[in-house]
Design brief:
Blueprint (H helix, E strand, L loop, with lengths): L16 H14 L10 E4 L4 H12 L10 E7 L8 E3 L5 E3 L2 E3 L3 H10 L4 E2 L3 H4 L8 H7 L5 E7 L4 H11 L7 E6 L8 H16 L3 H13 L12
Parallel strand pairs: 1-8, 2-7, 2-8, 3-6
Antiparallel strand pairs: 3-7, 4-5
């Protein structure tokens, strides 16, 4: 077993446990309060806390503190590796400044065993990836009951591969589990343009129709909005 070490502690978020707890709880205190019940999935940004901490807190504030989730599946885009698969970490736990987040290695190994065409247990994509790591302090300080995480870095871009990954994960999308999708939206148009692009992307996601989302991302790109590098990170 090989635990994953923090890669962005002290950069994206404080590496001092007490300071980290204060920062996260402050964001949770000023962010949007809970408006929905029985959350099974949420989207959270993965930038440094100084940039997106309040938005992330608004997402995690939708969780009931005493809710008992058995597993939290964290899906993140790969920033450093390109491969047409998803890498699930199942070699140990995630070490954080405040302790360890336990990984459900059994689920990870089963995904790799049952779906070797789209899942791998390659460690390298996780080593320096920040998109999963930055979600963990919010989960740690928001949820009072114990849970295990299933960390998945996705580099696949083909719709058929993504569909296959979704098919593999569908049996786990139950009331006992939480799915956290780690993604940033538009990079880096001016504020008003960003609001328009992000609203279009959000509406496409909530349509629950993958083709509508794909079409929306294509249309956003066609508009040639100044400084818009991407509408959706992953």
């Amino acid at each position: 077993m090989k635990n994953r070490k923090p890669s962005v502690a002290g950069q994206f978020y404080p590496d001092d446990p007490k300071q980290l707890k204060t920062v996260v709880e402050t964001y949770l205190g000023i962010a949007e309060p809970r408006k929905v019940q029985k959350v099974r999935a949420l989207i959270s940004p993965h930038a440094g806390y100084v940039f997106s901490g309040r938005v992330a807190a608004s997402a995690f504030n939708q969780l009931e503190e005493d809710r008992q989730y058995e597993n939290v599946f964290i899906l993140a885009s790969s920033h450093h590796y390109q491969f047409e698969k998803a890498s699930v970490y199942c070699d140990g736990n995630f070490e954080m400044p405040y302790g360890e987040e336990k990984v459900n290695c059994d689920i990870g190994r089963k995904l790799v065993s049952d779906y070797p065409d789209v899942f791998t247990n390659e460690i390298a994509p996780h080593t320096n990836e920040h998109a999963i790591e930055v979600q963990l302090p919010f989960l740690h300080y928001k949820l009072k009951n114990e849970f295990q995480i299933v960390p998945i870095v996705i580099a696949a871009s083909k719709p058929e591969t993504c569909s296959r990954i979704a098919e593999a994960l569908k049996p786990y999308f139950t009331e006992n589990n939480l799915f956290v999708v780690s993604t940033d939206f538009s990079h880096y148009p001016h504020y008003q343009a960003a609001k328009q692009v992000d609203t279009a992307t959000k509406d496409a996601i909530t349509s629950n129709n993958p083709q509508i989302l794909i079409d929306t991302l294509i249309e956003n790109r066609k508009k040639r909005i100044p400084n818009l590098l991407t509408s959706l990170c992953g």
